[in-house]
Specification:
Strand content: 35-45%
CATH topology: Protein Transport Mog1p, Chain A
CATH class: Alpha Beta
Largest sheet: 8 strands, antiparallel
Number of helices: 3
Helix content: 10-25%
Structural class: alpha+beta
Number of domains: 1
Radius of gyration: 17 Å
Distance between the termini: 44 Å
Number of strands: 11
CATH architecture: 3-Layer(aba) Sandwich
Length: 166
């Protein structure tokens, strides 16, 4: 009996941790945004659906794009402030400059590109108009795939929409 219970528990955990896939438009009313998962890429929801803050988009190259919302708990005055702090969180990477303004859909924000040995990280940050969540879109990819993955990153960023926040 104990063996059956243990096997059932392991199977339940495996099923609960299996990522759900998303094709097309991803909407997150809890954070108040939506983005388009590009063709040839796969959106993955890998956390508990009740606590997730966003989505990871797996790219054909092996790179990833992360799009998520979160509270402005550090009370940054502007997206540029948030990007400057985020860049400081990557001490082994070299920033190629902070881009102000940068666009996340129709929202004005800030962005940065970081070179990290053989990896590239691109960041975009925008604030929800009128307060509420702040929105991040982040690309992580190998240096030799940056050009192709930057195209996906641009598509995701330009497809960003603020939706009703619940």
């Amino acid at each position: 009996m104990l063996r059956i219970t243990a096997v059932a528990l392991v199977l339940a955990l495996a099923v609960a941790q299996t990522a759900r896939t998303v094709k097309g438009r991803y909407r997150h009313s809890g954070q108040g945004f939506s983005i388009l998962v590009p063709e040839k890429a796969t959106g993955l929801l890998e956390r508990d659906p009740h606590t997730e803050r966003g989505i990871r988009i797996a790219l054909p190259s092996g790179g990833s794009i992360f799009a998520y919302g979160e509270p402005n708990s550090l009370e940054w005055a502007s997206p540029a402030d948030g990007i400057r702090r985020a860049v400081a969180n990557y001490p082994k990477c070299f920033p190629d400059g902070i881009q102000i303004p940068a666009k996340l859909g129709k929202l004005a924000g800030a962005g940065a590109r970081l070179s990290c040995a053989d990896r590239i990280i691109r960041l975009l940050l925008a604030f929800r108009p009128g307060g509420g969540p702040i929105y991040w879109v982040r690309l992580e990819t190998a240096s030799n795939h940056e050009a192709e993955d930057a195209t996906f990153f641009g598509k995701v960023a330009s497809s960003f929409q603020v939706i009703r926040w619940q």
